[in-house]
Design brief:
Distance between the termini: 63 Å
CATH class of the largest domain: Alpha Beta
Largest sheet: 10 strands, mixed
Oligomer: single chain
Number of helices: 9
Order of helices and strands: HEHEHEHEEHEHEHEEEEHHE
Number of strands: 12
Shape: globular
Radius of gyration: 23 Å
Strand content: 15-25%
Structural class: alpha/beta
CATH topology of the largest domain: D-Maltodextrin-Binding Protein, domain 2
CATH architecture of the largest domain: 3-Layer(aba) Sandwich
Length: about 270
C-alpha cells in the first residue's frame, strides 16, 4: 500500500512537471507593426492559438515603420506593414544579420472620411492633394458648406501615410497645421467628433460613425478595390525564409480557407 502511494505521488509529480515544462516550452511568436494590418494579425493570432494551443503569439501595433524597425533590430519575428520595405531598411537589416522576406497577405483601399453631417460625397485626387497641402482651406471650395477644413493625417511612421503621400500628395507634404494621429482608429475617432474634419483610413476601419468619400467617382469596397485610385497591398515580413512556428503561421495566414477567410471577415480583400 505504501509503495502504491509512493508510485502515485511520483506519477502526479511527473505530470505536474510535464505541464509546467509544456507552458515554459510553448513556442512563441512576436508580431509588431502596422495598425492597418492589426485587425488581421489579432484575429489570425487568436484563431491560430485556438488551433495550436502550444503556441503563444504576441501582437502589437505602432505603425509599419516601427514594425520594420523591430525586424531590423531583431526584436520581432514578423513585421506587419501596409507598405513595402524601403531599400535603406533592407540595408540596415542585412548589416544587423537579418534578411527581410516579404509576403503579400491582403489588398486594401485607403479611404478619405468626413463627419456624417458633411454633404460632400466625392473628391478628386487633385482636390485631396490641395486639401492636404493646405491650398484648399474651406469645404465650400469643393461643393460643401462654408466651413474651414480640419485636416487629420497619420504620422510619418505610418505605412498608410507613406502610401497617401505617394498616391495623393505625389511627393508633396502635409501642411503643418494638420492634426497627426498614430492609428487608423484614432483618425476615425477624430473625424467622427469634428464636423470640419477630413481623414483617411483602411477599409477595415470604416464604420457608421464616419462618412466615406468616393475618389474620382469610385467608391471604396472589396468589389472595386482593383479600380480604386488609392489602393495597396498589405504585407508581413519575416526574418529570413520562415521556419518552424513562423512558417506554420505564414502558411495559415495565406491559406484560402483559414487566414484568407479572416482577411475577408475583417473587411479587407483576400489575395489567395
Amino acid at each position: 500500500m505504501k509503495m502504491k502511494k509512493v508510485f502515485l505521488s511520483l506519477v502526479f509529480a511527473i505530470a505536474c512537471t510535464s505541464l509546467c515544462l509544456g507552458t515554459a516550452w510553448a513556442e512563441k511568436l512576436v508580431m509588431k507593426g502596422s495598425t492597418t494590418v492589426l485587425p488581421i494579425a489579432q484575429k489570425a493570432a487568436e484563431e491560430f492559438m485556438n488551433e495550436y494551443p502550444d503556441v503563444q503569439i504576441s501582437v502589437s501595433g505602432g505603425g509599419s515603420g516601427n514594425g520594420i524597425k523591430a525586424l531590423v533590430d531583431g526584436t520581432t519575428d514578423i513585421a506587419n506593414a501596409s507598405r513595402f520595405i524601403k531599400q535603406e531598411e533592407v540595408a540596415r537589416a542585412v548589416e544587423n544579420g537579418h534578411y527581410p522576406v516579404p509576403f503579400g497577405i491582403a489588398f486594401d483601399c485607403i479611404v478619405p472620411v468626413v463627419h456624417n453631417s458633411n454633404p460632400v460625397n466625392n473628391l478628386s485626387i487633385d482636390q485631396l492633394k490641395k486639401i492636404y497641402e493646405g491650398r484648399i482651406k474651406n469645404w465650400e471650395e469643393v461643393g460643401g458648406k462654408d466651413m474651414r477644413i480640419v485636416v487629420v493625417s497619420r504620422d510619418t511612421s505610418s505605412g498608410t501615410y507613406e502610401v497617401w503621400e505617394e498616391k495623393v500628395l505625389e511627393g508633396g507634404r502635409v501642411f503643418p497645421g494638420a492634426l497627426l494621429q498614430a492609428s487608423n482608429g484614432a483618425v476615425a475617432q477624430a473625424v467622427s467628433n469634428n464636423k470640419y474634419a477630413i481623414g483617411y483610413i483602411g477599409l477595415s476601419y470604416l464604420n457608421k460613425d464616419v462618412k466615406d468619400l468616393e475618389v474620382n467617382g469610385v467608391e471604396a469596397s472589396k468589389d472595386t478595390a482593383a479600380a480604386y485610385p488609392i489602393s495597396r497591398n498589405l504585407f508581413m515580413f519575416t526574418d529570413g525564409w520562415p521556419t518552424g512556428v513562423t512558417m506554420q503561421f505564414m502558411n495559415y495566414i495565406m491559406h484560402p480557407d483559414k487566414g484568407q477567410k479572416i482577411v475577408e471577415s475583417v473587411g479587407y480583400v483576400p489575395l489567395y
